[in-house]
Amino acid sequence: MISYDDRDGYIWMDGALVDWREAKVHILTHAMHYGSSVFEGERCYGGNIFKSMEHSERLIQSGKLMDIPIPYTAEEIEIIKKKIVDIADSSDLYVRALAWRGSGTDMGVASENNKVRMAVAAWEWGAYYGEAKFKGAKLDISRWKRPSPETIPCFAKAAGLYMICTQSKHEAQSKGCSDSLMMDYRGYVAEATGANVFFVKDNVVYTPIPDCFLNGITRQTVIKILKDKGIRVIEKYILPNEMESFEQCWLTGTAAEVTPVGQIDQYNFEVGLLTKEVATEYEKLVRA
């Protein structure tokens, strides 16, 4: 494995292409101390970023929700991302766009006087869950809950909101799991640490209502795939013990793509036909 700070190539930063190893920020960057950054994770297939404009628009919206005004339009961000993809050594890439409060005259909680900076990088990244993408991931249940919308800007893709996700995933991996399933502040099933979740029972698909976590772009794409197939999709509040009655389960996300789940805590699922069909049709769609 190559360290992410020691690679060949270029990263776009603040209007210029910078040598990968020189893409640095000062230790007193506000985002490093207070989590004042937003980002997007995108996949590029055959030289084309899937749902690219939707990601660019969401990045800007996340900035607005976090009071981080991004100094670029969605159209300008599209040009930047294309430039990074065009100079990459591969046509299948993971693309990371990041905007943050930099260093400046503010170093307390407030940061209005600190310039908003932006960078875009891309690299080759295989299956997020490794072999679990084909065999079925094993998930722990996190002790952390997705917070109430009254406590955080939960619809922003903001770096600080992932702290409990990192802790949850570390704990899950220490138990031999691929990831962790999180409940929301009310105790309903919410999502994995970086992916939305779907369940199947009697050929009907169930997925949590995204009212305190991201309504993922991949999630929306998969729901459309299912509806186009004539599959009924029910968005509802799901209690943990309801998982016992579900037959299949999968995760969706830009990194996760469509990954089957074989086990969540004591609940077991088959990697069934519908799961495989959705994964196959998603793969065809992103490479169309």
Task: Give the SSE map.
Layout: E1 10-13, E2 16-19, H1 30-34, E3 37-45, E4 48-49, H2 52-65, H3 74-87, E5 93-101, E6 116-123, H4 132-135, E7 137-146, H5 163-174, E8 179-184, E9 189-192, E10 196-201, E11 204-208, H6 217-228, E12 233-236, E13 248-253, E14 257-264, E15 267-268, H7 273-286
Parallel strand pairs: 7-8, 7-14, 11-12
Antiparallel strand pairs: 1-2, 1-6, 3-4, 3-5, 5-6, 8-9, 10-11, 10-13, 13-14, 14-15
- The geometry reads as globular
Number of domains: 2
Structural class: alpha+beta
Distance between the termini: 31 Å
Beta content? 25-35%
**At the third CATH level, what is the topology name of the largest domain?**
D-amino Acid Aminotransferase, Chain A, domain 2
Mean pLDDT: 97
Which architecture of the largest domain would the CATH scheme give at its second level? Alpha-Beta Barrel
**Main pleated-sheet profile:** 9 strands, mixed
Strand count:
15
How large, in whole angstroms, is the Cα Rg?
19 Å
Question: What is the CATH superfamily classification of the largest domain?
Answer: D-amino Acid Aminotransferase, subunit A, domain 2
Order of helices and strands: EEHEEHHEEHEHEEEEHEEEEH
